[in-house]
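@channel sequence for tomorrow's demo:
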Amino acid sequence: MSLVASIKKLIPTAVKQPLRDYVDDQRWRRQDRLAFDSARLLPRSQIDIAAIMNDRDIGEAFVEDSVSIHKLFGGHEIPGGVNPGDRRALYHLIAHFKPKRILEVGTHVGASTLHIAGALKRFVEGGALTTADIVDVNGPQGAWKSLGLPFSPAGFLSRLGLGEIVSFVNKPALEALATDARYDLIFLDGDHRPQAVYCEIAAALKLLNPNGLILLHDFYPGGKPLTSDGYAIDGPSIAADRIGREVADLAFLPLGNLPWETKSGDKATSLALVARRA
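structure tokens (generated this afternoon):
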């Protein structure tokens, strides 16, 4: 065991998190200003969130497709996974915008992955999803195993006939974003610390095809709870606030309340789109 590892082992658990928070805060304060090129983002004027979420044809398709997904994966909330209401919102977004190439950062158990892939299969001919995570989500150390799910994300996809649509990448977010590939939509749902979100958005913008979109999860404006459970994460909104001060033509569009329940009996979602302000 290295000296650093030995010292870390001696630090009480109750002290470790405050230390991590302090180190993260200092790194964030020292973060250099990055370039945010919004030229390839879809303009916000072309986004009508209410119309997308209330689209009857998409809603009927979701109800039909969700039968097989719920039968295998379940329609309940899973710790750390995208809640059922947000899964439906993702399906509606994919069905409406029809992005042919999608990158998802943060696979976890595949709750969002299944619904994105399901929408691609129905609405986007030749559509493909690349999903990246810092751990091997399909291995025995993946969250699916510890949470007692019957299959890994790849196992679920295969059984739902979605396996050929999805490819898995086992890399940290910024490494997954360091690619020559181009995407029509990039869904960022990995590390939610301000510095990580700030850097990931800058990197994601470079990978977009014209009229592309970036989608954020766990976006709580002002770091305030959106649902009655009192839960909130402030990192993404802190990063967005800084980007907003530095870049005039980027817009962050929270999806707000949905026509259906998300969690805790509420309808609010923490999903937010990044678009061009013009």
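heads up for whoever presents: The radius of gyration is 19 Å.
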